[in-house]
Amino acid sequence: MRAQFVLSEIGVGLRRNLTMTFAVIVSVALSLALFGGSLLMSDQVNTMKGYWYDKVNVSVFLCNKSDAESDPNCAKGAVTEDQKKEILADLDKMSVVQKVTYESQDQAYKHYKEQFGDSPLAASLTPDQMQESYRIKLQDPEKYQVIATAFDGRDGVQSVQDQKGILDNLFGLLNGMNWAARAVMALMLVVALMLIVNTVRVSAFSRRRETGIMRLVGASGFYIQAPFIMEAAVAGLIGGTVACGFLVVARYFIIDHGLALSEKLNLINFIGWDAVLTKLPLILATSLLMPALAAFFALRKYLKV
């Protein structure tokens, strides 16, 4: 009988404050959708880091005849065969180096033509203007400075470049976007909490006569508070369910179908459905507990039980 009464009171409360309940559902849904989206974006960035950092190379570019005339680092002339052998031998001795690949001037010219064949500059270049290089795969991409320290400024070396620096700029941008989404999410959570507190306050005020009678007949504090807490929890759970729906639909239509980014952006290793599905229980639990706790603390102030 008591459970039936509590459930009936929940229905009455939700209908009485239908507009504010709808506002709570929408704000909770948006804030938790942003929360889930930020978690998924963090997973995506980490996945991309693991994928791309595993492929980055450190390039040791060697001096050619053109560099000897224009580049201060190559003031002693183009790299010699003995210098190339010494550089390769030293690279092979380094424990941080996993693999070394030599790229000749002809190979560099071919790769340049494949990537930038439409550029006006490509028509004026010749193979002898390209630089020989050693492409170095590191055991740990963070150890770039070891290579730079060992070979920067060495005779025959024009420059040492780390591809990871380019990726760091990209991931810095993605992380900045993720933090911006989290800031908006935090703002929406605050709005949702304020709406929940205000809704509970209005609901308690509109039923002050019933709660007064319940106190007079000896009802416990929890029994009086339960309908209000459950109303907030139900509204939050509906919002959380909507947020989960947003994430599932977004993953389906943006990544797999519709925009189909997984097909159009083959270079990006997108996170799978398992990453999305593991976030849904967390979102639902948050949507249930957050409004319930907010209502509980609001009732201590606005409902004198």
TrEMBL record:
Family statement drawn from the similarity comment of this UniProt entry: Belongs to the ABC-4 integral membrane protein family. FtsX subfamily.
Function: Part of the ABC transporter FtsEX involved in cellular division.
UniProt membrane topology term: Multi-pass membrane protein
Domain of life: Bacteria
Subunit structure: Forms a membrane-associated complex with FtsE.
Species lineage: Bacteria, Bacillati, Actinomycetota, Actinomycetes, Kitasatosporales
Listed transmembrane segments: 21-41, 179-200, 221-254, 280-299
Pfam family, one: FtsX_ECD
Compartments in which it is found: Cell membrane
Keywords assigned: Cell cycle, Cell division, Cell membrane, Membrane, Transmembrane, Transmembrane helix
Domain FtsX extracellular residue range list: 56-160
Name of the molecule in the record: Cell division protein FtsX
Main location: membrane
Keyword Cell cycle: yes
Domain ABC3 transporter permease C-terminal stretches: 183-301
